[in-house]
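Why do we care about 3D structure at all? Because function follows from shape, and shape follows, mostly, from sequence. That is the central idea of this module. The next example makes it concrete: a single protein chain, its amino acid sequence, and then its structure expressed as tokens.
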Amino acid sequence: MAAETTAERSPQRPGTLLRHLGSRTGLALAGLWLLAGALAVRQARAILGKPVDERLPDLLGWLGDNGALQERGSLYEGVSPFTGTPLAGLVLTPLTRAAEQGLGVAWTFGTMALVVALGVVAVRALPGPLSPRARLFAVPVALTLLAVSVPVRNTFHLGQTSVLPVLLVLVGWLLTGRRARLGGVLTGLGAALQPAVLLFAVLLWLVRRREAAIATAASFAAATAVAWAALPGDSWTYWVHHLAGTGLGEPSDAVANQSLHGVLLRAGLRGPLEILLLLPLVVGVCWLALRRAVRYARDEQPLLAAAVTGCAVIAASPVAWQHQQLWVLLAVVGRVGKRSGDRLMWPVLVALVMSLTSDALVPKIAVLGPLGENAPLIAALLTACVIPFMPRTSETWDRPLPSGPLSRPNLMLELMLIRVGYWAYSYVRGHAPDGRDLAEGHGEQILRWESVLHIDMEHALNLAAARTPWLEAACNYYYTTFHFLVPLSLLAWLYLRRPGTYRKTRTALSFATLLALIGFYFYPLAPPRLMPGLGYIDTAHGPQDLEDPDFGALTEISNQYAAMPSLHVGWSLWCAVVIFLVTRRRWIRALGALYPLLTTYVVMATANHYLLDAVGGAIVVGTGFWLAHLIARAKDRHAPEEPETPEGAGSPSGPKDTGSAGEAKDAAVEGSGGDHPEEEGREAAPAAAEPARAAVAAGQADETKPGVRATVPRQSRSSAADEAEPGAEEGAAAPSAGGQPPEGGRRAPAPRE
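And the structure:
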């Protein structure tokens, strides 16, 4: 059974860990454990560092003075009404006496222990076989993802109990065989704390674990009956009046409610119409999710089956607050994509959705607002109904097709990383030190250095541009437009036509931007237009009132003291280097070389940068290319060597990569340096034919050699159709008419074009 299989995949033993100490794997593993520990310490400090009356607002609001669990009235009335089930209130009531006696400390560390237990249980349920390195890294990676996720952070902050039902249900689902009945009891107790997870009882029934399903229903009914007997009025209020908690706590149309009910309410639907739309949506999502979960459970992927069902629970629940969305995070275990370069797309998407805010996920554009606000629900629906997770019987389950250095990266993953990278760039720029005295002091320092070097030309260029209206307008337009337009357009072209070059240069650009952020943070610098009393003119935004701390509207957008280094110049220099790499045409290279020079002039003419800022931009770009080169060399050293091919034999052909083929074609055309590709093609045809003739000759020469398969070009295949393939083994079965190899045989590799 699945549980018996996963139980054998325990975390790595201490002896195995000790063997890796001192190696690169050991250092990386130690770093991950330190990161997980640092996140745990930070979370504990964030909670326990607050005053007692400000920590765990939900929990202490229920247990403290005038709390719902202290008063003799209903749990679901008063200033801080309870939001859990009556059973949860019954369990928490004895803790009211400890509300002011260290409960915050005990609750924080107890919740932390539950999170650790959830991570370990999830790792033990990973589908195998796992490599030794995967077993080493699985637990710290899982704990790190849990620690940075919004559900866990929200649970810690509010003092909620949402981790416990998820842990109970997950453990109950994984227990099979003789312990199936105990697993059903645990699942039922989890449902008594969070009723929507009763959907797992249906899943247990569908996978023919009938005893566990009956035990789930029985334990849920028993626990609910006990709570009903102890708190009849509150039970009636929760189960009947509020329909299993609907409407308790925040309004159901709040953005934090990531359920289908919540999104329909936010869309403006109310009353019977909303219910008529909600019911078929809920039934459809649950039906699709259960079908998929049954398939994954039978495929020995119990953790993925639990994640799919849990995501259906989130979508179908009347309310699914942030602290109840842990099921979405468990969906990272699903494998999507046949290529190695596609495998990271889904886990990265889930991790970003469950750890970042909507502003970080999507740009601040009105039409994209709902996409960011409902990102957890969208991820839950994709998990439950849409994403084609790979079965373990797939040939590429543990051996994905290699992407290769010239293949095109996954577009969705690239867009996500670009968006998050730009958000991080904006965040660091906005939170870098922006003290005026420090920034203006650095400005005076830059001006002194330029004066000593006799390169202080910014003031003259700025006055000349400000006194020439057409030049001033042209510089302002150039400064505000080309900074993003040209690099993004070049990145898009590289992705479509030169994926190999895109990979290398994109990495260089990322390193350059990261180094620039370090400069922004540690060396805040006032640009010339914000230096008081020096006579610089802000050509784009007009005069600023520097006597006012908030001297202009731009201070509300970003940190205006992020001037060193100049990314305007840096990114333009990156564009010039890329243009030199992809073409040999002189007029295009001339334009590429002119771009950073013109940008350097514009940033000084508009009084946005000093000349030394431009030098700093060039330094970070050069360092970025150097670091990208080091990474490429390291990958080449660790790349597996290709097997040698006998003389005259062609290499087996894999899937054709249109990106690398297009890159080779463009390189041939650009490398010629001519302007007439038709003539270049005619001149290159005889040279291109020589390898084909050599291959044919080699095939004829090796025809008598046993075990050597000659590679015949596609053009000569028709003439050799009736001849037996040289080197073929006797008795080898021929492919069938439909193109499929016979049973027990393999299709011969097709020749490359």
